[in-house]
Specification:
single chain, alpha+beta, Cytochrome p450, 4-stranded mixed beta sheet, two-stranded antiparallel sheet, 50% helix, iron, heme, iron ion binding, Cytochrome P450, metal-binding
């Protein structure tokens, strides 16, 4: 009897091993083509540790705008074709809006309540609806323009006072706009304790989300059984981010709650979430994470686009001159540009779009996943497949952008509509860029972000000459490193490493205007957002 049991077990084990060798890591029938696979690991051995989107783009040249990768037992499809992106992620967004499992970001760090990583559940749809109600185009036009104008004026004022800190001023600007809207609390200084803590948190979040920063536990769950000390202490590192994130976001929410007790509610995102909590059923943790994730998204993405813009201006002085000529013809010296100038400044609007395209903040976006089998162009994409939107490949498509690595606003000549209008166009060729995602996962802050970028870019070009800094040792100009490989941070979002820039105000009249408008903002706008101190 024991012998028969042993023989049966041996046969089952042999069959399992044979199955694994024959099928795990192999591409299924009728699926899109892709690079050759190896048993068990599939294409994992071919993925670079950094800048994987560059390899994805090279494979797209060989295997087309839709191809399959096997990541061990898991399946991934990479999209670099505008038509297929529209078909699968926009038109079929009902089944392509899931997220692949993310043990580190979604489960350990954010306890399942991160809007970006949540699956297409009723809770996700409710949270997205609630945050969207405060970031609509109408809200941006009627309510948020005042703080955007004031904060971008302070950005100019800060650059006047300490131009070498220009990158920190960009971060303060983008953060203060979204924090004012979400909490009713602005970020007045680059040296604020809150700003320092948030920037440190964003850096750690980016690092833990780097490709290869943690073991592939989502692909091979058995790795979770191995003591973490043998795998780089990945749980401990993720827990540190969890603790710092919750400490900061809880502090912000608690600050609003104390202000409400003392002074009553304000027209902010968190106030409305708290007012509606009984009706919506959101937990305190969900409110905390929803508001915190919103300020995170509104802080680092806009600042990263603006950093790329600065790189492009330093290396393309002819573009600076052309943009300044357009601005000077419309604005003059006695006021700074504002949102009402948008339609009169098409070249500046094109610079905003080109800043997105040239060095995309999220070169692979955030991956989608399918909730059902889907057929595209006669090819099967199975349920559960991870969908990578190859934003880098789309933005650097040589057939659409022949000089794709050159920063050229004329790529968008005549394309003056806002990003939301192009994203919602039925014609996939109309899409200007993919910086805000797709389908049901389209960034809810798209209206606010587009306006933030125009405010900042138009004002910087109006106010300053932007030139290469001089190396104090050699006396030679410092060339910014514009390479995505060596000049940009790796992670879920890409941001240029800090580099020196020479900023000089263009005229005494412009300096006077900046100071005057900053005084006006301090007197008439900022007090509404300075009723509560965070730290």
């Amino acid at each position: 009897m024991a012998l028969h049991v042993f023989q049966a077990s041996a046969v089952l084990a042999a069959g399992l091993i044979l199955y694994v060798l024959l099928f795990v890591g192999r591409r299924g029938r009728n699926m899109p083509d892709g690079p050759p696979t190896l048993p068990i690991i599939g294409n994992l051995h071919q993925l670079p540790k950094q800048k994987v989107y560059l390899q994805f783009t090279e494979w797209a040249k060989k295997y087309g705008g839709m191809y399959t990768l096997k990541l061990g037992p898991a399946t991934a499809v990479v999209l670099s074709d505008r038509r297929i992106v529209k078909q699968l992620l926009d038109k079929r967004s009902a089944i392509s809006s899931e997220r692949p499992t993310n043990e580190v970001s979604q489960h350990i760090i954010t306890e399942g309540d991160h809007l970006l990583w949540m699956n297409n559940t009723p809770a996700w749809r409710l949270m997205r609806k609630l945050i969207h109600q405060d970031l609509t185009e109408k809200m941006c036009e009627n309510d948020h323009h005042k703080i955007q104008q004031a904060e971008s004026v302070q950005m100019l004022h800060d650059m006047l006072k300490s131009p070498d800190d220009w990158m920190r001023h960009l971060k303060r600007f983008s953060n203060s706009v979204i924090t004012s809207i979400v909490y009713g609390i602005r970020s007045p200084s680059i040296d604020s304790t809150y700003i320092i803590r948030l920037n440190a948190l964003l850096e750690k979040w980016a690092r833990i989300n780097e490709f290869g920063a943690t073991p592939p536990v989502d692909i091979f769950p058995f790795l979770k059984l191995i003591p973490e000390r043998f795998l780089g202490n990945w749980v401990t590192r993720a827990t540190v981010v969890h603790d710092e994130m919750h400490a900061l976001y809880n502090k912000l929410r608690e600050t609003v709650e104390k202000r409400r007790e003392a002074m009553g509610p304000m027209p902010t995102v968190v106030d409305r979430l708290l007012d509606q909590q009984e009706k919506t059923g959101l937990t305190t943790h969900q409110i905390t994470l929803l508001s915190g994730v919103t300020i995170k998204g509104g802080s680092d993405t806009s600042a990263s686009v603006l950093s790329s813009f600065m790189q492009a201006m330093v290396t393309n002085p002819h573009i600076v001159k052309k943009a300044q000529a357009e601005i000077d013809a419309v604005v003059g010296d006695d006021r700074v540009p504002n949102w009402s100038d948008y339609e009169s400044l098409p070249y500046v609007a094109a610079i905003v779009k080109e800043s997105h395209r040239w060095r995309p903040v999220a070169p692979l976006s955030v991956p989608h996943a399918l909730s059902e089998d889907e057929w595209v162009d006669g090819k099967l994409i199975p349920k559960g497949t991870t969908i990578f939107l190859n934003v880098w490949g789309l933005h650097h498509d040589e057939s659409k952008f022949p000089n794709h690595d050159v920063f050229d606003p004329d790529h968008y000549k005549g394309r003056t509509l806002l990003a939301s209008e192009y994203a919602n166009s039925a014609d996939y060729e109309n899409r200007d860029h993919y910086g805000y995602g797709n389908g049901r996962r389209l960034c809810p802050g798209i209206h606010l972000a587009d306006r933030n970028l125009f405010h900042a870019i138009s004002k910087i070009l109006w106010a300053f000459n932007i030139e290469k800094a001089t190396d104090p040792k050699t006396g030679k100009p410092v060339e910014p490193d514009t390479s995505m490989v060596t000049g940009y941070r790796e992670g879920l979002t890409a941001c240029a490493y800090e580099f020196p820039v020479k900023l000089t105000v263009r005229s005494p009249a412009k300096r006077k205007t900046i100071l005057k408008e900053h005084d006006d903002a301090k007197a008439n706008v900022f007090p509404d957002y300075e009723k509560t101190a965070i730290f």
